[in-house]
Design a protein that fits this description.
Elements (H helix, E strand, L loop, with lengths): L36 E6 L13 E2 L11 H27 L3 H25 L6 H6 L3 H29 L9 H17 L5 H33 L10 H10 L6 H7 L8 H27 L17 H14 L7 H10 L3 H9 L1 H9 L2 H35 L17 H17 L3 H25 L7 H24 L1 H57 L2 H37 L24 E5 L4 H13 L3 E9 L17 H17 L3 E8 L2 H11 L4 E5 L5 H7 L2 H8 L5 E5 L1
Parallel strand pairs: 3-4, 3-6, 4-5, 6-7
Antiparallel strand pairs: 1-2, 1-5
Helix pairs in contact: 1-2, 1-8, 1-9, 1-12, 1-14, 2-8, 2-9, 2-16, 2-17, 4-5, 4-14, 4-15, 4-16, 4-18, 5-14, 5-15, 6-9, 6-13, 6-14, 12-13, 13-14, 14-15, 15-19, 16-17, 16-18, 18-19, 20-21, 22-24
Length: 754
């Protein structure tokens, strides 16, 4: 493939802040690319033309449906499969040898939710998440559902990071795990700023290895199933009253939120969506339910001392923990004092063993049933999968904020993309809130309470909205099943709200902040944007300074671990203050610019603008992919003039989000750098008197979009510039030029402007 060096250009992005928008295909040409918006701008040489955008053809088409059942099933397994890492331990924590019955109850609820979402996916083939389905009933209800889902993803990130370090073998003593979990979330957030595109295959491999390791644990549990079954409390002998049983069941309802992700992805599923969604949900559902029951029986065979198979625990850990909690609260540093440590061991000799089972049940089973070496392998793999869940949760939080901001439900600053196609401002709360949660709550059981109230609320709204929507084609027995599932979910949600004070306060804070932000975006933004940004920046800055001073004081008076929380909060609030002040500066600049605009008299008509001639289909075609490099555009115009061809100028705006709705992506009218690029290209084409066509696209895969347009228009040559991105950015996202060079058809020449 010929390569011709000429001059340096940047094909990878623009440094400025760019508004975001829709994933759709626009233009009269054949649709292509993965989730792209195309706007084909053909030059208009009529006297009435004011600029190159005088004639714009815009024709919406659907996104390509390429998500198959195995790929969607892997995403679902990433949530349902990882939930067993803490569901089993929490069931043992609350109910000990009666845990099997509660795992069975959760399995039945998973089946009900899975079936309900198969109906939802069928009814909403273009996206059936809570925000889409509830919007048909009420926009307010849709916003509440989306905010509850945000609360779920916040705690998913916090709980997965916490449990990930527990599976890696970090002892759950003192204050070690929460700071490490916070550091892990911040690190993953930093990587997300650059857009993690190459970790998908790694996460898929880890998920497959996890399935194999979990199956091995289940196989090695078979010799212990008889002993475990003998220890299980018969259902008829359970002495707790029905309200106590219901309360215990509610505490282990966790494995649900994955179906929301599947419902959001129906817009890109391989048709028919009804069949694909069923093949996605049902196999994963069967594996999770059956394997969880087998593992629950094997877990009942665990003993306080692995060397004594006949030993038994005497009471659930929740009771022994309640007896110890006053002492632990009074002596937070008891781990470093031998006398206090001995006192704890005297009160509960099995304290450490019970903690290990609660936080890393599968690792304990792998160590006891297979071997210590296998336990280390499982701990590392399971920990990595949990960190992958943190990354998925952060991406989902950014996507929700982005989608709601595009719909004018949140401030527009949350949908502005950075040069890597990521809404960088939305990334800050996606990282900040989980770190705050981890700094406040250091117990997996409490984190589980916060998790459940968000996801159960979102699922209740989605199922209830679908069941009450009379416009959907749902059979009477299906509607009855949806009502039944929604009623059970509502009971779980009300129980959590009535019995879990921390969970209720948390979800009310999320709803309050989200609804206030919505009110600001819809009613106050235009009037008080500058003032609110200034006040917000000052408040965040003062809070950051206060927390920094407080952390320094605690560093000298107490343990350094407590000071780390204040330091993290101070850094995050400092970032928010910087963003707010930057936004304030932008608004002041816009106000000054508007005041300096000189309005022409009404009788003064704008002078006609000369435009390049219209594209001639008989001429050779040249495609240049750029984001505004003048040298590359000048060379492209010169090259097209030499071969007497027409020039297609392609500007691809990168949207690096996985969970966005079909019609969410920037428009050309919002993208100032793209308009500047086309105006610059127009100037060079006028100088060379060659035809030009401007093409604007929004895509999650820039290289694929360039290849698709090159093939669609039948070009003879593709011109690109050398990337200016750092080695780290290219390693995380891949190099666009290399991807195009490796896949470009042999009959198309690639010219690299170095």
């Amino acid at each position: 493939m010929p390569m011709r060096p000429t001059a340096r250009a940047d094909i990878d992005g623009y440094n400025g802040k760019v508004p975001t928008s829709t994933l759709a295909n626009l233009g009269n040409q054949r649709p292509g690319g993965i989730g792209t918006r195309r706007e084909s701008l053909v030059a208009d040489s009529s006297p009435d033309a004011v600029n190159f955008m005088a004639k714009t053809t815009a024709k919406p088409t659907e996104r390509p449906r390429e998500l198959s059942a195995p790929h969607a099933g892997a995403i679902l397994y990433g949530d349902w499969g990882t939930s067993r890492f803490y569901v089993l331990g929490l069931a043992f924590y609350y109910s000990l040898y009666a845990s099997f019955w509660y795992v069975l109850g959760v399995g039945i609820l998973v089946i009900m939710a899975g079936w309900s979402y198969s109906v939802i996916c069928r009814c909403f083939p273009d996206g059936g998440g809570v925000y889409s389905s509830a919007r048909q009933i009420s926009s307010n209800l849709a916003v509440i559902g989306a905010l509850l889902l945000c609360a779920d993803y916040v705690v998913t990130a916090a709980m997965s990071a916490y449990d990930g370090f527990a599976y890696l073998g970090v002892p759950d003593t003192g204050h070690l795990v929460p700071p490490l979990a916070i550091a892990g979330i911040v690190a993953i957030g930093i990587f997300n700023y650059f857009g993690l595109r190459k970790v998908g295959w790694g996460a898929l491999i880890i998920a497959m290895v996890t399935m194999v390791l979990t199956a091995i644990i289940a196989i090695y549990s078979i010799p212990h199933l008889a002993a475990g079954w003998e220890r299980i409390t018969p259902f008829s002998h359970m002495t707790n009253h029905l309200p106590v049983r219901w309360y215990t069941f509610v505490n282990v309802v966790l494995a649900l939120s994955g179906v929301e992700a599947v419902a959001n992805m129906t817009g890109v599923m391989v048709p028919p969506v009804k069949r694909t969604s069923k093949r996605t949900i049902f196999p994963v559902m069967v594996e999770v339910v059956i394997l969880n029951l087998i593992l629950a029986i094997g877990m009942s065979a665990l003993t306080p001392n692995p060397a004594n198979p006949a030993g038994k625990f005497t009471q659930p850990q929740v009771h022994s923990q309640a007896a110890l909690q006053p002492f632990l609260n009074k002596h937070p540093d008891w781990q470093s004092k031998p006398a206090e440590k001995a006192y704890v061991s005297k009160l509960n000799p099995n304290y450490q063993r019970e903690n290990n089972i609660q936080n890393a049940a599968l690792r304990v089973m792998a160590t006891d049933f297979v071997g210590k070496w296998f336990g280390w392998i499982c701990g590392i793999v399971f920990g990595l999968l949990l960190f992958s869940a943190v990354n998925t949760a952060i991406g989902a939080m950014m996507s929700i904020q982005y989608t709601m901001a595009r719909g004018k439900e949140l401030p527009e600053i949350l949908h502005q993309l950075n040069r890597f196609g990521v809404p960088a401002i939305a990334l800050i709360p996606a990282v900040l809130v989980p770190t705050i949660i981890l700094s406040l709550f250091h117990n997996l059981a409490t984190l589980a309470d916060l998790y459940a109230i968000g996801v159960v609320g979102a699922i209740t709204i989605n199922i209830g909205s679908t069941a009450t929507n009379k416009t959907l084609k749902i059979k009477p027995w299906e509607r009855a099943g949806l009502f039944l599932t929604g009623a059970v979910m509502m009971c779980v949600e009300l129980t959590l709200a009535a019995t879990k004070r921390e969970a209720l306060i948390f979800v009310l804070c999320v709803l309050g902040v989200g609804l206030l932000a919505r009110f600001y975006a819809q009613h106050l933004r235009k009037r008080y944007q500058t003032q609110s940004a200034l006040i917000g920046g000052i408040v965040c800055g003062l809070l950051a300074l206060f927390l920094l001073i407080k952390g320094a004081m605690i560093w000298h008076s107490k343990t350094p671990y407590d000071a780390l929380y204040f330091l993290v909060w101070a850094i995050m609030l400092g970032l928010l203050a910087a963003v707010a002040m930057y936004q304030c500066g932008l608004e002041l600049g816009r106000v000054r610019a508007q005041r300096e605009i000189v309005v022409n008299p009404p009788e003064a008509a704008p002078a006609p603008v000369s435009l390049p001639p219209a594209a001639d289909v008989d001429r050779p075609r040249v495609l240049v992919a750029t984001t505004g490099a003048p040298a590359l555009l000048e060379f492209a115009a010169k090259y097209a003039a030499q071969i007497n061809g027409c020039l297609f100028v392609l500007y691809v705006r990168h949207l690096n989000l996985s969970f966005v709705a079909q019609q969410e992506g920037p428009t050309l009218e919002e993208d100032e750098p793209a308009r500047y690029t086309f105006e610059l290209a127009q100037k060079f084409c006028l100088q060379k008197n060659i035809p030009m066509e401007a093409i604007y696209a929004v895509s999650q895969d820039v290289a694929y979009t360039i290849l698709d347009f090159a093939a669609t228009y039948g070009v003879e040559a593709v011109l690109m510039g050398v990337s200016k991105r750092s080695l780290l950015a290219r390693s995380l996202q891949g190099d666009i030029l290399t991807a195009v060079a490796n896949q470009l058809p042999q009959d198309i020449t690639l010219l690299v402007h170095a």
